[in-house]
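Notebook, bench 3.
Goal today: get a predicted structure for NUDIX domain-containing protein from Bifidobacterium bifidum so we can plan the truncation constructs. The sequence was checked against the plasmid map this morning, with no discrepancies at the termini. Length recorded as 206 residues. Pasting the sequence as submitted so the record is complete.
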Amino acid sequence: MIAADRTLLEQARELQALAQTGLAYCKDPFDRERYERIRAIAVDMLAMQADVPAEEMRRLLSAGYPTPKLDTRAAIFDESGRILMAHENSGEWSLPGGWVDEDQSVRSNAVKEVKEETGFDVRAERLIAVQDCANHNALTYPYGVLKFFVLCRRVNGRFTPNIETTEIRYFEEGRLPRLSETRNTAEQIAMCFAAHRDPDWVTLFE
């Protein structure tokens, strides 16, 4: 892909990642000074593109070698084959999930996020797919994001409204609500339905 075909956000992300990698490995103090300056420019560019204060952007972009953030999304089905979705404060719907905490694995984080957002206790059974958010979702993040879709089975528990979720509901495949597309798209929901129907589903990854 040539530079003219890339958005300013994409170019700023790459510039910031290159500078951060340089800071992680460089030994020369003059090179470090140059990388610091390049990183500061890139962070300012990202802050303008994402409409986030530069100080907040600097806090979000941790030091060290740059790696993508991880996000889990749990696919939970009822006896009728409908999928569970959570109603966000934004007014949109998504599969229960969120960022993987530092002390969690993909499996444990999927279970934890379901409990926090829906009140349900679930068992994570199969990994449906690993996807690059930039290839599938409305990407607005200044860093890479990998999404892990996990097929889960409800064990028990009940819903209580909380700070993240106003309600939960099961939906049929052809009657989905308005989706939060940074979290999940109609195509990703269809993929989860397909995995649920197929006992021999093979994990998709890219």
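Residues 3-60 form one domain. Residues 122 and 154 are 4 Å apart (CA to CA).
Flagging this for group meeting.
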